[in-house]
Every structure is written in structure tokens, then in C-alpha cells.
């Protein structure tokens, strides 16, 4: 297909695609369905488990799964119905991700920064929010429209994806660090996931103030390495990120108190 015809086809697809709003009310264009994204996420996760180094300490995966279960219990039915699965990878880089389809991964290096269940819940709630806000589908759609991610169309069937296609789709879904290719979420996505994730962890009975501590720890851990100016980064500035999360703590205290009064007191141990 010629470039002009491809652009016309993409424009037509964009015109007829469902325009939706995120739970926060932001307009969102999606050219792929949830079922397609779920299949892509499951395929990518299976390949990561087959190719990456898994943690040899089962308790670390159990720890993450315990927190994920507590968070997922607070989601709407459409998300609770997914087969949520958590896996720890023996990778030193402090990182975590959640893929469409309910597949969650943590690097064991994250546990040096997220030092208790509430801090880890802050990370995982943030990643779960990326899924429930359909950020990956939005990114894949943007890639299609920009013609930089058209190979993803061949990967929708999942099992037929080539290694290069798998790397691209994992990068597009936010797991690029695992495969050496990083296409990070946008600043809007990250800020959205911060606020939604902090609210989610509070509803599950985790301390929302731990989100502030977690990002303070992250900033301290990465301080020696430096970071680009905010305008050059798709991630929010750490200071502003911490300020935004701190501003929400008092608002979320009644939420966590109500959750705990209802018996929601997570007890997850690593």
C-alpha cells in the first residue's frame, strides 16, 4: 500500500473509531479493542516469562500478587473479571509494569526502593491504573496513526508475532525496559496514573501517604544518575509529582479510614 493510501486508511480508521473518555474525563481515541490489547498483553507476558530471568524466590511473586489482589478487588467488574497475575523478575533496575489482560511484573530491584507493602502498593496501583485507563491502547493507536507502529497490526494474533514485533508491542505497552527499548508513557498518562493509583490504593486500605514516600525514595535512588529537564522527559518532574501526591493525602484519609473500618486491612509480606 502506498504512503498516501495508508494515511487515508488510517484517517478513515480514526474517523470511525470509538472516541471515549478516561475515568478522569480526558478525551481518548482508541483504534484497538480491549480484547486485542488483552491478547497482546498476555502474549507479551508469556514471552517475557520465557525469556527474562525470573526471581528464584517465590515469595516475591506471592507478595506482589497479594497486593495486586487487594487492589483489583476495588476495580469495576469489567476489570475484576480479568485473570490478574503477578510475577517477580530478577532484574536490578527498580521497575514495575502492568500489561493489558491483567499481567503485572515487578523487578526485584524495586523492593530496595519500595520498602513496605504500602510503598509497593503505590507503584502497583499506578501501573494498574495505566491498564484501567487504557493507556496502552491509546499508545498503540497513536503509534498506528504516526505510522511508527504499524508492525503491531501483524502482532494482534499474538502467537504469530515475530521477535521484533514482540519487542515493539511490549515497548508500546510500557514494558520496554525489559527488552531494551523504551517508549515511555506520556506525562499526561503518568500524572493520570499517579492520581488514580493513589485513590485506588486508599480504597484498598493502603496508606496513600506511602505514594509520597515511594517517590521520595525513587528520587533519592536516581539522584546520582541525574535526569533530563522536565520538558525533555515524558515523566513528570519528581518534585512536582511528589507535591501533587502530597496534596491528595489529606483528601484520601477519609477514604482509607472508611476502607479500614470496612475490614480492608491488607497484610502482604515480601
From TrEMBL:
Assigned keywords, A-Z: Hydrolase, Metal-binding, Metalloprotease, Protease, Signal, Zinc
One matching Pfam family: Peptidase_M48
InterPro entries: Mito/Outer_Membr_Metalloprot (IPR051156), Peptidase_M48 (IPR001915)
Listed cofactors: Zn(2+)
Range of residues in the leader sequence: 1-17
Domain Peptidase M48: start-end pairs: 67-247
Cofactor binding summary note: Binds 1 zinc ion per subunit.
Superkingdom of this protein's organism: Bacteria
Protein family membership: Belongs to the peptidase M48 family.
Name listed for the protein in its UniProt record: M48 family metallopeptidase
Organism: Pseudomarimonas salicorniae
Lineage of origin: Bacteria, Pseudomonadati, Pseudomonadota, Gammaproteobacteria, Lysobacterales
Amino acid at each position: 500500500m502506498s504512503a498516501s493510501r495508508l494515511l487515508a486508511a488510517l484517517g478513515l480508521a480514526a474517523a470511525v473509531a470509538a472516541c471515549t473518555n478516561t475515568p478522569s474525563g480526558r478525551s481518548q481515541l482508541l483504534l484497538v479493542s480491549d480484547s486485542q490489547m488483552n491478547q497482546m498483553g498476555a502474549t507479551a507476558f508469556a514471552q517475557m516469562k520465557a525469556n527474562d530471568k525470573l526471581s528464584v524466590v517465590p515469595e516475591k511473586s506471592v507478595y506482589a500478587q497479594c497486593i495486586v489482589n487487594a487492589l483489583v478487588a476495588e476495580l469495576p467488574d469489567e476489570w475484576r473479571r480479568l485473570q490478574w497475575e503477578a510475577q517477580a523478575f530478577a532484574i536490578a533496575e527498580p521497575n514495575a509494569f502492568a500489561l493489558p489482560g491483567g499481567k503485572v511484573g515487578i523487578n526485584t530491584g524495586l523492593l530496595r526502593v519500595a520498602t513496605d507493602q504500602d510503598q509497593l502498593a503505590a507503584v502497583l496501583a499506578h501501573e494498574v491504573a495505566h491498564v484501567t485507563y487504557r493507556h496502552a491502547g491509546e499508545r498503540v493507536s497513536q503509534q498506528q496513526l504516526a505510522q511508527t507502529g504499524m508492525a503491531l497490526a501483524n502482532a494482534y494474533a499474538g502467537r504469530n508475532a515475530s521477535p521484533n514485533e514482540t519487542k515493539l508491542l511490549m515497548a508500546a505497552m510500557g514494558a520496554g525496559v525489559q527488552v531494551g527499548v523504551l517508549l515511555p508513557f506520556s506525562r499526561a498518562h503518568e500524572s493520570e496514573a499517579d492520581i488514580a493509583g493513589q485513590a485506588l490504593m486508599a480504597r484498598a486500605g493502603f496508606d496513600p501517604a506511602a505514594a509520597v514516600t515511594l517517590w521520595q525514595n525513587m528520587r533519592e535512588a536516581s539522584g546520582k544518575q541525574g535526569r533530563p529537564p522536565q520538558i525533555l522527559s515524558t515523566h513528570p518532574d519528581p518534585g512536582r509529582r511528589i507535591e501533587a501526591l502530597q496534596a491528595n493525602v489529606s483528601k484520601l484519609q477519609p477514604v482509607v479510614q472508611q476502607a479500614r473500618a470496612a475490614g480492608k486491612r491488607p497484610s502482604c509480606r515480601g
